[in-house]
Amino acid sequence: MYFIILGTDKPGQEQMRAALRDRHRQHLGTAEEHGITLHHGGPTQSDDGQRMNGMLLIVEAENLELVQAFVREDPYSRDGLFSWVEIRPWTWITGRPNAVTLLP
User: What's residue 24's pLDDT?
Assistant: First the structure.
């Protein structure tokens, strides 16, 4: 199954984000060890594009519980950067590598 992970930073936490960023990226590098395939990811931006204010990940895993555990262990989550995190099952239709694109 595919999932999207949306995390939104608490306001005014740019310094915390910067301090945690290397550990966060190291954690993303362990995705396979957690049963997660990380397909795409990156920070979301403020409206003016001048600062990071959250993240978006597209992952693949056998079930939601694996994704939830992976997100809980992320330094951004564990150390309190996010005001909220949402994980949704997702159907990958367009732009999927090595697949035929079928539009409804």
Answer: 97
pTM: 0.87
Q: Which CATH class is domain 2-90?
A: alpha beta
Residue 82 near residue 56, CB atoms below 8 Å: no
Q: Are 81 and 13 in contact (CB under 8 A)?
A: yes
Domain spans, the chain: 2-90
| Predicted local distance difference test score (pLDDT) of residue 92 | 85
User: Given a cut of 50, is residue 103 above it in pLDDT?
Assistant: no
35: left (phi over 0), alpha (psi -120 to 50) or beta: left
